[in-house]
Amino acid sequence: MNLLRKFYYGDIPEDKSGAAVTGSASGHDWPLWEVFIRSKNGLEHKHAGSLHAADARMALENARDVYTRRMEGVSIWVVESKHITASNPEEAGELYEPAKDKVYRHPTFYELPDEVNHM
Amino acid sequence: MVMDPEMLFRDKIENEIKIEPKDWMPEAYRKTNIRQISQHAHSEIVGMLPEGNWITRAPSLKRKAILIAKVQDEGGHGLYLYSAAETLGMSREEMINDLHSGKAKYSSIFNYPTLTWADIGAIGWLVDGAAIMNQVMLTRTSYGPYARAMVRICKEESFHQRQGFEALLVLSRGTEAQKAMCQDAINRWWWPALMMFGPRDTESTNSDQSMKWKIKRKSNDELRQNFVDMIAEQIKTLGMTLPDPHLKWNEERKHYDFGEINWDEFWQVVKGNGPCNKQRLDARRKAWEEGEWVREAAEAYARKRVDKLKG
């Protein structure tokens, strides 16, 4: 069983060999872009989805048409997906588990007398 | 301790933890999702055609604006779904090619023609209504990107169903001719809408495994029954009837009984012999082929700009 799957970027597998694939990918798709939307000022940009576009300008325009038709955003970021480096689920143990036994990083770890309010 | 990836996968499914693109998954799970999500995407795109037929002939500017917005939504839904399928490793181009070669299917409902304006109302109410039953269930599907696409789609889809019902409501309160047109559209769309839920549970080959993997969470017959129960009540408001002499409330089951679907027609349309199968695929291929120069020009322009930046 293959434990290690390699990916170039984001959520798109490097080998395009999904099990259902039979035809050959001749690579004519426009580049893939990830879209991030700020829903209103004061909030951060959040990943909304992805789309194909020939260049950044087209990616922005398409993102506007696809992801903000109902006033979902006031600002858009697009970044070509290949520029995203993503962690691998296989590394989840070493990356995130060390935080599990550090409960003293949370305020609830400390028991204080009742008279100390709002700390 | 290193867990066997297959056990880890089953554990996630069991505990309602979503499967994300880079997680290990059985190849059959990947394949089933690619097939289902891409077919769903194709359905959204082909679904633009029967409605697009009425954009230039909508009875008022208001109805035209609504219909354009709806058809634009369907295009967006197709995009969300293609993107979700791409995370499983199939390229957009391959999916489009499979649609055009006839290898990939799309929902058979779009192989029926839209003969009158009332059909647009009936599609919104019945066809989108049936799709919503399925899509609400799929917001809880086990593959993360598919579930997220569905949440977005469901938010937009409810406008589709409501505008359809409202369009029919206006007709149902109109002249005798308008009432007749409304009833005729309901008569023609009712059975195809019921067919949208797919074969009976006993005949459905993909259902069992999909339920175990929580890709599907309700069976075809269960969803179809929910749909019949909902529509059988709503039609009373329209003062119209459904074309099924066997439709009757069953007090014991607390559900509506209904007649048998014409399964021969169902399989004929699936196999490509519906009224509009050829027309739909021809329209998709034509759009793709005639758009080729646009795709190439945009690429050439992008390359030129990159070269210019490099100086």
Index terms:
heterodimer, A: 119 residues, alpha+beta, Ubiquitin-like (UB roll), 2 helices, 5 strands, elongated, B: 311 residues, mainly alpha, two-stranded antiparallel sheet, globular
Structural account:
With 119 residues, chain A is an alpha+beta fold. Chain A has a single domain, classed as Phenylacetic acid degradation B (Ubiquitin-like (UB roll), Roll). Chain A contains two helices and five strands. Chain A has helices spanning 56-67, 92-96, and strands at residues 7-9, 12-13, 32-38, 45-52, 75-80. A three-stranded antiparallel β-sheet of chain A has the order 4-3-5, covered by helices on one side. A two-stranded antiparallel sheet of chain A has the order 1-2. The model of chain A is unreliable at 1-9 and 15-25 (pLDDT under 50). Chain B is mostly helical and 311 residues long. Chain B is built from 13 helices and two strands; from the N terminus they run H-H-H-H-H-H-H-H-H-H-E-E-H-H-H. Chain B has a two-stranded antiparallel ribbon. In chain B, strand 1 and strand 2 (255-257) form a beta hairpin. The longest helix of chain B is centred in the middle third of the chain and has 29 residues, at 144-172. The N and C termini of chain B lie far apart (54 Å). The A-B interface holds A 1, 3, 5, 7, 11-13, 15-21, 23, 25-30, 32, 49-52, 54-55, 58, 65-66, 69-70, 86, 88-89 and B 4-6, 20-24, 27-28, 30-31, 34-35, 69, 72-73, 76, 79-80, 83, 86-94, 97-98, 145, 149, 152, 156, 295, 298-299, 301-302, 305.
